[in-house]
Amino acid sequence: MTTFENLSSHQKLRATVHRDTKSICSETCHLLGLEVTKPAMEVIAELVYKKISVYGADLEAFAKHAKRQTINADDVKLLVRRNPTVLAHISELAGNISSKEKRRKTSTPVAKQRETPAPKWKEKDMEKSPVVFRPPERKDVEAEQGMELDIDNMIDLTFE
Amino acid sequence: MARNTKENGDSIDPASVASNVKCSFKQDIIKDLLNSSFQDNKTKLGNDALTLVVEVAKCLVQETCLRASSQALRDSCDKVDLEHVEKCLPQLMLDFP
């Protein structure tokens, strides 16, 4: 009998990619009121698996060309440069991440001085752009999902 | 994403659907997958880059689903089947480099 523990590391990665893809697929299609069949999801999962492997090789080449050893956000932007909408989305996300990191770095040494203005700023930000504060919500959701996934931990291993 | 299919007038609003999907890939899975595809062992993956690659992968899945869904609606099916995915694959592969 095949269990998850018996698989090689590559097969484990693949099984996990398949599981995540299936959850995204079914959620997206259920929002539209449609069902997705299993073969369709498997094809999409396999596509994503291969695509990410190719992205890995590309990103490594980009970083090498810039004479770096670490892949950073600019390499990812270069990767999606030919699709303007994805590029805009990714750039926005990258801007959010970097600004958050800066805020974290500056807020630790001057935390005492900024005790009163900081909450106001947050409230303003929340009103203006809820997008900036999406990641904390996501973490909660991810934690919930993790619990759910543990409960129904039936990973399908019938793919090739 | 790069959708220019407004011609069939169905009620799909891709942006609202895409922003409502809460599931995503686990970061460590994508990290392992990328690390296994590197040829040079010295190459490292930055934290922000990993987040962005996860987002790109999520976009890819959502985009495939939305295109396949609109194809299914065009064929007046209520199940997204393999043929609908296959039909939108070539254009998808051109849009995602």
Automatic annotation (TrEMBL), chain A:
CDD domains: HFD_CENP-S
Organism from which the protein derives: Plutella xylostella (Diamondback moth)
Name of this chain's protein: Centromere protein S
Gene Ontology MF terms: chromatin binding; DNA binding; protein heterodimerization activity
InterPro entries: CENP-S/Mhf1, Histone-fold
Ranges annotated as biased composition (Basic and acidic residues): 112-128
GO biological process: DNA repair; replication fork processing; resolution of meiotic recombination intermediates
An annotated GO cellular component: FANCM-MHF complex
Record's keyword annotation contains Oxidoreductase: no
Assigned protein family: Belongs to the TAF9 family. CENP-S/MHF1 subfamily.
Region ranges (Disordered): 97-146
The entry's keywords: DNA damage, DNA repair, DNA-binding
Source taxon at top rank: Eukaryota
Keyword DNA damage: yes
PANTHER family attached to this UniProt entry: CENTROMERE PROTEIN S, CORTISTATIN
From TrEMBL, chain B:
Subcellular location: Nucleus
The keyword Lyase belongs to this UniProt entry's keyword annotation: no
Keywords (A to Z) from UniProt: DNA damage, DNA repair, DNA-binding, Nucleus
Keyword Zinc: no
Pfam family, one: CENP-X
Assembly, per entry: Heterodimer with CENPX, sometimes called MHF; this interaction stabilizes both partners. MHF heterodimers can assemble to form tetrameric structures. MHF also coassemble with CENPT-CENPW heterodimers at centromeres to form the tetrameric CENP-T-W-S-X complex. Forms a discrete complex with FANCM and CENPX, called FANCM-MHF; this interaction, probably mediated by direct binding between CENPS and FANCM, leads to synergistic activation of double-stranded DNA binding and strongly stimulates FANCM-mediated DNA remodeling.
Family (UniProt): Belongs to the CENP-X/MHF2 family.
Protein name: Centromere protein X
Annotated source species: Plutella xylostella
